[in-house]
Known about the structure:
This protein has three helices and ten strands. It folds into two domains: 2-33 and 155-207, 2-Layer Sandwich (Gyrase A, domain 2), CATH 3.30.1360.10; 36-147, RNA Polymerase Alpha Subunit, Chain A, domain 2, CATH 2.170.120. The chain has helices at 20-32, 53-61, 182-207; strands at residues 2-6, 10-16, 36-47, 90-96, 104-107, 111-113, 126-130, 136-145, 156-163, 169-176. The protein is elongated, with a radius of gyration of 20 Å. A hairpin with a 3-residue loop joins strand 1 (2-6) and strand 2 (10-16).
Amino acid sequence: MEIISKDAKKISIRLKDVSLPYANALRRICLNGIPIFAVDSVDVIENTSMLPDEGLSHRLGLIPLKTDLSRFYEQSECPCNNDVGCSNCRVMLILDSENSDVTRTIFSGSMSSEDSQIKPISDKIPIVSLAPEQKIKVECYARLGRGTEHAKWNSSTISVLVEGNSGNEKILTVESTGALSPEQILVAGIEEVNKKLDQFKMIVDDIQ
Length: 208
């Protein structure tokens, strides 16, 4: 594996002597098989905007959140064994626009998180425009999920380019949403592919 280029959002690597099925499996896993945080449920305390509660909840769910995989469990694997979740598998974020007598746009920077590491990747993502005296106040609950469940948990966009007449080299390009670094996505993707291959091998061995 050779790194061709990388920056804070994108990494391109050259894979040598790697089969196309493996490269494609890695592509798919990096796209939607790496757990990241996203808002999964919203308690609307007050919403007098023109945006319905469902639309507001949907928009909040699509805001990419910075993710720390070292401290949190996916809810299905958390020791709390609770559908509601706990501090080890769920993070609450609060959005309170407060009152104002001017028209303004509410951005993601107005969301406050109970965990300083789990927060929107940018403070400048627009959420809703409010007219004078309009207000929103919501409690958002974010959890780890995978893109196979919903697109809001996709961690990146990714492509595979086959080079050479023999197809012996593939260029894999990972562009992160910002929830994780491109390197983290790539390393987690390799680990996940290898884990799935081991699980498949065990199943085949049991059949035999």
